[in-house]
Structure prediction request, 409 residues.
Amino acid sequence: MKKIIGLLVLVLALAAFAACGNNEQEVEDITLTLWHWDTNMQAQYEVIFEEFYRQTGYRVVQQIVPWADYWTNLASSLEAGEGPDIMWMDHLNAVTYMPSGLLLNLNDFYLDMSGFHRSLYDPFIYNGSLYGVAVFFDTIALFYNKDIFDEAGVPHPPLRGWTWDDFREAAIALTLESGGEVIRYGASFQTHLQTGTNNFIRQNGGEFINADGSAFNFDTPEALEAIQFWHGLIWEDGVALNPADPAWTNFFLNDLSAMEIHGMWRVAPKYEHLGDRLGIAHLPMRVQEANTVHSTAHAVNANTNHLEIVQQFMEFSTSSDLGNLFAPVLMPAHNDSQRLWFDNFPGLRTLSVFTEALDIARPLPVAAQNAGTVWALIGAELSRVYQLPEITMEDLAEISANTNAVINE
Prediction:
């Protein structure tokens, strides 16, 4: 009898061992997929995935889908019940995906979002539920060429507190002409919402989108005054480069523009060209400071087959561990990791303007419906009116009407 019992114990032990072995094999075979569009993150994501594997024992693989194809491919795959476990999601598309049922509601994960500025994850909340964890972001700043300022005897902009009038006065002084033609512009800026007109209108105390994104109203006194001011720098003062110029992005890099208003994603090429000659300051203001923030998040496929592992990855996404590993390439969303991004540009000492801007910035103004089409339409309409000899309230009313017609289609 003792021999039989002993044999039975041995058999059960071997069975348990085999079961454990099979379970380990199953764990090793489970691999999450993540889609994104940025080739600059390809190598860094491999580092991120190795750290996640070290912490959890689970593998993740990436698929880079070019931006031109990303949203079409993502929509078709998710609608078919397929697609990646985890994906990049931005503000502009989140408004479409969150109510669709294609993204997983993350509330049941009880994620700790205390390490993030509210403006970075607000765009990924719908009806009180969280649908994405921001992983990187960008804000807007004033870039300037220190050498051109010094050669012209113009004081550098302060880190904060410059007004539109200060900006205009400097642009006039920095513009250089020869033979009746401008050979160096004092300033350059874009007209679209993210880096330009959204900030201009809000800096002038105006608003143009209602709380739920269902209507845009550009025909207000504040908006008209703001757009006319920046339009005047181009056509009346002649000190700002026409934003429609196809070579616009190269002027500042080639010392043909003394100042440029642009986004954080342009720091790297500007630093590469100018080095320590590059200066960065907060945006100039009129009646108040204003800025625009855009963040990209990790979102989850509602049909993922690996819910528990995905939860671990999303918890990892809320940590400074992931933020620290984003920093060599992109500005991390996690508060504790952001200063590491500064280390990529050792000669620049005012990069904090991009993180300080979070306190005054608002997320992209996105329409509640047909957001991508609306965004493209507004960009085209603003480009058009900035080319007019003068801008009237009727011109802005036309933008409002055209925009709201598309929202309500």
Remarks:
- Confidence is low (pLDDT under 50) at residues 1-27.
- Residues 29 and 354 are 42 Å apart (CA to CA).
- DSSP finds 17 helices and 13 strands in the chain.
- The first strand starts at residue 31 and ends at 36.
